[in-house]
Amino acid sequence: MARYKLILAYDGTHFQGFQRQGKTRTVQLELETALRKLGWQGNTLLSAGRTDTGVHASGQVAAADLDWVHGTEALTYALNMNLPDDVAVIRAEEAGADFHPRFDAVERGYRYRIYQAKMRDPLRERFAWRLWPEVSVECLNQCAKQLLGTHDFAAFGNPPKAGGSTLRHVYSAEWSAHEDELSFEVHGNAFLYHMVRRMVNAQVMVGQSRLSLTDFIQSVQNAEPLPPGLAPAQGLVLLEVRYASNRQEAVRLMKTLL
To answer: Which domain does 15 fall in, by range?
Structure first.
């Protein structure tokens, strides 16, 4: 028996999120079904975190204990043979017996895509938010730089458990532009539920003069409530989850953020 770390990619369009919800179609349900066909006897696999309905991933991480003697490359192929077309195992690795995809993570990265156009484009709207009127990348980056560092992000999301901490540390946050497309990439130690989508929506509101930069800054620095609203799910991709080289390093890194 060994614990395997599985790096996943999926198109979230037709999934009701990552986390298993009975018989509802989720990424976790599909992956557990595929694992059982290979002899997996577990009750639930471990994951780095949940993604919402419609959110995509290129670097989600899960882990499962499995009796498998054919190597990690064969495991990757075997799982993909049993998975639907909209989810795939990119890579399988053997991990330590105590590896936990969520609690051992020291960094997560997300990307949010926008395209600016008056008319919809069916070939892009599956993976991006169509936005109009336009906003400037310079204005958005004025907002993004306010997100850096450790803050109480209560205005931007909810903790995984009721009463949990809403303190999070953002390592980097930046917008880039290419032709009519905007891309927001943000990396942090962890994220609250809906945090990235609310970040994007609030920054766009500033860019469209529906929220002042001063009010946005107050929400970041003092956790003052924001106007309601979330950026649409389809623009968001979980890019990667990064881990320390060992548990001791992970603990040390997390303590530096407290």
So the answer is: 2-95
201 residue type, one letter: N
Q: Which of 62, 95, 139, 49 is nearest to 245 (CA)?
A: 95
| 147: Cβ contacts below 8 Å, ≥ 6 apart | 170, 173, 186, 199, 220
What does 162-194 look like in DSSP terms, one character per residue? TT---EEEEEEEEEEEETTEEEEEEEES---BT
Residues 86, 111, single domain; the answer is no
Model pTM above 0.90: yes
**Alpha-carbon distance 57 to 240, whole Å?**
8
Q: Buried b vs exposed e over 71-90: b needs ≥16 C-beta within 10 Å?
A: ebeebbebbbeebbebbebe
Count of alpha carbons within 13 Å of 35, Cβ hemisphere only?
Answer: 25
User: Could you give the number of structural domains in the chain?
Assistant: 2
Beta strands in 11-55 (DSSP E): 46-47
pLDDT digit string (tens) for 46-103? 999 999 999 999 999 999 999 999 999 999 999 999 999 999 999 999 999 999 999 9
Residue corresponding to tokens 């623009």: 235
Q: Give the C-alpha separation, 55 to 226, whole Å.
A: 22
Would residue 110 count as lying in a domain?
yes
86 is catalytic: no
